[in-house]
Design a protein that fits this description.
Length: 458
């Protein structure tokens, strides 16, 4: 499923769900124990067969019937039910000699406030929060389309080679600007759970965009979507799948599915304190936006695990350190921001693009890690490290000092202690987790932040 199999007419899936090479985060968040286990251990066929049997046939049916479980209707509602159900159970082991047992408790769900919101409420909130933003966005796009059409007419009238080239560049610039604007809305769910609100947001945005594009035929967005479609088809042929299978797949590469993929990759952001919720939210989005023949989109750049209420503010820390926060290394953070932006702009139409998304994300996280560590030191003071900020001020707040291999022993001990505190409490520094929302063009944006925030009313 990860790499595909031409002999079985199975195209690449990838995207992370079947990824056996997932890296372990240096800050301890985002680790996938299941993936690591399967990569490091082998399971006997008999155990795998039992698992597949249990997942394939209805356990309540008579064994002679072998009634198949129908997964075709599996959706976010079912995953939400699974998530709520899992929260009511906890693994317990009374002593080292006792077996591990699964015990039921309703306290976990009450403590975390994890409840699945009825769908009609989700629809209402998304429409009311996101709808006005879409109205404004598409009104701007409508004006841009008129400008683009004028540029296309102008290109037809010019005659000199230089003028034709300049006119073509203007047309292409406007086309790219329109595409970026259509898919430029940023919607956040800061307590996403299993992704119900995010799935509804993707569907709502995709429906609005499809209706708008249908009302404005011959626009550059449709051209870009068609290019994506052709890229997917070319990749399928390169995988040497059976021609009949390719023909079947191509028939399912609909415009709405491809637009949903773009919205999912670019427009929605989610955070949750529970790592399992993050994985379920990815699965919810993958299921809802699945496009046969195209790999699963990379989503780690927009779906994160962390405590959205516990994190440091870059400007506040910089002011407290009298402007010495990032020093000359601020450019490095801006470079990481651009890499993160590029991750979101990749279409993930092919496995190569998915892998490029992952590689750029890893580079961006690596570049941001020293800044995250510095912010962790600042944030740790109210969490049992009373001298953390004083030590940071003493060092001048320089990232290279915090991250330097030859730093003093007491600084190393402080950073190590803070790292554990940050992992346990899941510190979440918004500007460093989603830097492209706050920074761009080599500076802090004039109006940074998300366009809309949605979520469970409580």
């Amino acid at each position: 499923m990860d790499r595909g199999d031409a002999a079985l007419s199975v195209p690449h899936c990838n995207g992370g769900l079947f990824h056996a090479r997932k890296k372990i985060s240096k800050i301890g968040i985002g680790e996938d124990a299941g993936t690591r286990f399967l990569a490091d251990h082998k399971l006997a066929d008999s155990f795998v067969a039992d698992a597949i049997w249990g997942l394939t046939f209805d356990p309540e049916a008579d064994i002679s019937e072998r009634r198949f479980i129908d997964y075709s209707a599996l959706g976010v509602r079912h995953l939400g039910d699974v998530y709520e159900g899992l929260l009511e159970f906890r693994l317990q082991q009374e002593s080292a000699n006792e077996p591990i047992k699964l015990e039921s408790t309703s306290r976990e769900r009450k403590d975390s406030g994890s409840y699945f919101t009825p769908h009609f409420i989700v629809e209402f909130i998304v429409a009311k929060a996101v709808g006005p933003i879409v109205d404004l966005q598409l009104k701007d796009v409508e004006a841009m389309l008129m400008e683009w059409q004028k540029a296309c007419e102008q290109r037809k009238r010019v005659q000199t080679t230089q003028s034709i080239k300049a006119a073509q560049q203007q047309v292409e610039l406007l086309a790219r600007t329109i595409f970026m604007r259509v898919f430029g809305i940023k919607v956040l769910d800061p307590t996403m759970g299993s992704g119900h609100f995010l799935v509804q947001t993707v569907n709502y945005l995709a429906d609005r965009i499809v209706a708008f594009l249908a009302a404005h035929p011959g626009n550059p967005v449709i051209t870009a979507i068609e290019r994506m479609r052709q890229t997917i088809v070319a990749d399928l042929r390169a995988q040497k799948l059976d021609d009949r299978e390719i023909t079947r797949i191509v028939g399912k590469l609909t415009e709405i599915n491809l637009i949903k993929r773009m919205v999912m990759k670019r427009c929605v952001y989610g955070v949750d304190l529970n790592p399992m919720a993050v994985e379920l939210a990815k699965l919810s989005l993958w299921l809802d936006s699945f496009t046969l023949g195209a790999p699963l989109s990379f989503l780690d750049h927009h779906l994160k695990c962390g405590n959205t209420l516990v994190g440091a503010d870059v400007e506040a820390v910089e002011q407290a350190l009298e402007g010495g926060l990032f020093g000359t290394q601020f450019a490095g953070m801006l470079q990481a921001t651009e890499l993160m932006r590029e991750v979101g702009e990749l279409t993930d139409a092919t496995v190569a693009e998915v892998e490029e998304s992952e590689t750029k994300f890893d580079y961006a996280r690596e570049a941001l890690l020293p800044f995250i560590q510095l912010m962790n030191v600042w944030q740790a003071e109210p969490f049992g490290h009373p001298n953390a900020r004083k030590a940071l001020k003493h060092l001048g707040g320089q990232v290279d000092v915090i991250d330097h291999k030859t730093k003093p022993a007491e600084t190393k001990a402080l950073e190590e202690a803070v790292r554990g505190t940050a992992v346990i409490n899941r510190f979440f520094h918004w500007e460093l987790e989603f830097p492209e929302v706050w920074y761009g063009g080599g500076r802090r944006l004039d109006e940074p932040g998300f366009d809309a925030v949605i979520g469970n009313p409580p």
